[in-house]
Design the sequence.
């Protein structure tokens, strides 16, 4: 799962985010420790900590002193909203801009999307 496409700490953060969104990590559940991530992915514990701390800084995880990191109440919905915004900015806006260049109106674009959707 870890590759060279982006920094490892970002990949660790994304793995945790994906587990939160999918429900593998429920609200108030404990996240694997930095040492567990480090051992499993054969990375430096500081790298794993950087990914986890990023999620703490974003308000998605919190620390229980001496116990570990836990998922914040409301984290799944917060992540979904962030990802929806990212999706709109990264995919929908450019799609609409290209459609406009090609003279494709919204109705035609919606029809094209529906025609190419998995059933």
Sequence:
């Amino acid at each position: 799962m870890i590759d060279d496409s982006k920094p490892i700490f970002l990949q660790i953060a994304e793995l945790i985010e994906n587990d939160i969104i999918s429900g593998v990590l429920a609200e108030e559940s404990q996240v694997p420790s930095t040492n567990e991530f480090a051992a499993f992915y054969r990375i430096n514990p500081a790298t794993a900590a950087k990914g986890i701390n990023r999620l703490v800084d974003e308000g998605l995880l919190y620390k229980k002193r001496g116990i570990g990191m836990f998922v914040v109440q409301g984290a799944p919905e917060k992540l979904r909203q962030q990802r929806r915004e990212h999706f709109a900015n990264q995919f929908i806006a450019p799609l609409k801009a290209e459609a406009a260049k090609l003279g494709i109106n919204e109705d035609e674009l919606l029809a094209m999307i529906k025609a190419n959707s998995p059933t």
